[in-house]
Amino acid sequence: MPWIILVLALAVVTSILIIAYGYRRALMVMSIMVGVGLGVLIWYGERGNRGGSDFPPEAVHVDTFSVVKVYGDSYQLAARIKNGSPDYTLTRFGLTLTATDCVTQGGERNCVAVGESTREIYLVVPPNQARDFVEQFHFPNMHPKGELIWAHRVTQVRGES
Fold first, then answer.
1. Does the model's pTM come out above 0.85?
2. Tens-binned pLDDT, residue by residue, of the chain (161 aa)
3. Inter-residue contact 100 to 149 (CB < 8 Å)
């Protein structure tokens, strides 16, 4: 999103400067604007990375979840994420959903993982609070022969103090 705003602003300002002052001044002002814009974007990116490095990943738990097939190869996960940290606000997290196909043959239950999908979920969860969320996961070419068992794991967390 910041890139789109920067490009649109540059286009508008460039048009105005060319009309008002000519090409040389327009190029000089554009160069300054691009430098400032890139500086702001780099600062914004560093700020986001710093906030995520101190967040304790063991403080985040998925309490309840259910998975239903919605269409084709897409499945919908409805879950509740709990931020157990007393100091950090969760801003996003990675979640991996694994599908295991379990078939019972001759009294034995054989299970094999048949699909895995990871999503990065943007959700603000203040300290010691929980939020419900719904996300879709895609599992191409998954043709279970028995019962699907679902498992999940939080792969990464980002937050800010």
1. no
2. 556 676 667 667 667 767 777 666 666 776 777 777 777 777 666 555 444 446 777 889 998 889 999 988 899 999 999 999 988 899 999 999 999 999 988 889 899 999 999 999 999 999 999 999 999 999 998 988 999 999 999 988 988 87
3. yes
Distance of CA 40 to the CA centre of its chain: 22
Give the C-alpha distances (Å, rounded to integers) separating 64 from 105, 121, 138, 151: 30, 16, 20, 11
Listed as own residue / partner, the contacts of 59-62 with beta carbons closer than 8 Å and 24 or more positions apart are 59/83, 59/84, 59/85, 59/88, 60/84, 60/85, 60/90, 60/93, 60/154, 60/157, 61/154, 62/95, 62/152, 62/154
Residue with tokens 């048009």: 15
Which helix (H) or strand (E) segment holds residue 18: the answer is helix 2-21
**Separation in Å, CA 40 to CA 6, 46, 47, 101:** 10, 10, 10, 48
For the chain, the C-alpha Rg in angstroms (whole number) is 24
